[in-house]
Fold this protein.
Amino acid sequence: MRKPLDDYNVSPAHRIDADAVCAQCGTVNPEGTLICKNCGNNLRDQKRLRMQAEQQLQLGEELPSTRRMMLGIITLVGAIVIVIAGFNADRIMLWLVGSSEVVYSSDDMWSGRIGRQLNALTEDLRNQVIASNQIYSVLQKPVNSENIEGVYVLAVRNEENNFVPVGKAIVKPYNSNDEYMFSAVLDNGAQIRGIARKQEHRYVTSWDRASCEWGGVRGAVSGIVSKREDGRYEGYGGYERVDGNFEFYAFKLP
């Protein structure tokens, strides 16, 4: 029996600590959701910024009355600005990601010009034979490269907090403006493909620029990937047909 995609979710020790109710659109998301399934707001950042704002307001209550009132007003205004900016950070980022002249939908990843390019990229990936010793070598000692282009081993953490390989991926430049096309093939038969854009130190793909096909069914995908100091990439993704989010890791092959 094929392993469903939600089996790749993080263990209870690594559950995502995030707000359930999105302050941006009011959607009530399933517990452990990182990105709001309705508007793309980052719910973990929302909770962190909300708690920071509440702490600042609590500190203001301990000051003498006059100074407390003035600083309280300043803190309140500042906190509101910070929280609003935080609530919209990933939404703004996704707007920027989707602001190119070409507009995509998840179906575009399988048809037309971009579909043909991703088909060729996927075929290239399938032709990449990765030996087991190569896989476990990069899991133990990640390759630290500034160039994101290449082939990757995909992994998740198990209950013992060890990395377990679950598939492979390939990344190549796409057009300009720090855009990259990617394709991933998982051991359970799922295929994920799309276009991501570099935003500061993160690579982001929004719901209309990535898609997953598993068991003959397709659905939109979104995700954020960041490089860590040791060279590995850590990512969080969402699939519209599954509740919650997925934490995964990518290790570049030399």
Q: What stands out?
A: The longest strand covers residues 163-173. The chain has two domains: 5-97, 106-252.
